[in-house]
Amino acid sequence: MSQPALSSFIWSVADLLRGDYKQSDYGKVILPFTVLRRLDCVLAETKPTVLAELAAKTQLGVNPEAFLKKATGRPFFNQSPLDLKKLLGDPANVAQNLFSYLQGFSPAVRDIFEHFEFQTQIERLSKAGLLYQVTEKFCQIDLHPNAAFSTPDKLKDKVAPCHLPTT
């Protein structure tokens, strides 16, 4: 995704928020949704493996956390059968399902969303009738690290990768 396309996307989300949010509050929605979509894209390819590993370890009565991290190849995971696109399949329950999806993340990731106070924004978006629209908008963008940005070669060495804390 090019810089102008990303900028256009952000403005399209801001357009949805206009009227219900002050301009200074747009980041309270855009930032956590960007992080969520990035994680959603990163974990998509390992979701079936994670769910199978979760079922196997749960059946054995074993704490699955270390196995789920290994299955993703990352220091985080999501054990929910949901993802952002699946949330859209149940428009009447997007807020409830989004809360459930967030609870499926490993503890370090949940902490990130708690610091964003994302639950408050989800409730606010839901009350304003915007949660489905904003979620749908973010599902339209691929934020996987391999696809997300077309960084000019001269900037590639200056753009730091994002690493989540490990627990």
Which terms summarize this structure?
single chain, 167 residues, mainly alpha, 10 helices
Overview of this protein structure:
With 167 residues, the protein is an all-alpha fold. The protein has a domain at 3-18 and 27-42 and 81-151. 60% of the residues lie in helices and 0% in strands. It has ten helices and no strands. The chain has helices spanning 3-17, 27-44, 47-60, 65-72, 84-87, 94-103, 107-115, 118-127, 131-139, 153-156. The radius of gyration is 17 Å and the shape is globular.
Write the layout of secondary structure elements.
Blueprint lengths: L2 H15 L9 H18 L2 H14 L4 H8 L11 H4 L6 H10 L3 H9 L2 H10 L3 H9 L13 H4 L11
- Sheet having the most strands: none
User: Which shape, going by the Cα principal axes?
Assistant: globular
Low-pLDDT regions = 150-160
Let me know the average pLDDT. Answer: 91
Could you state the order of secondary-structure elements as H and E? HHHHHHHHHH
Structural class: mainly alpha
Q: Return Rg in Å.
A: 17 Å
The overall strand count is 0
**How many helical elements?**
10
Helix-residue proportion = 55-70%
Strand fraction = under 5%
How far the N terminus sits from the C terminus, by CA atoms, comes to 32 Å
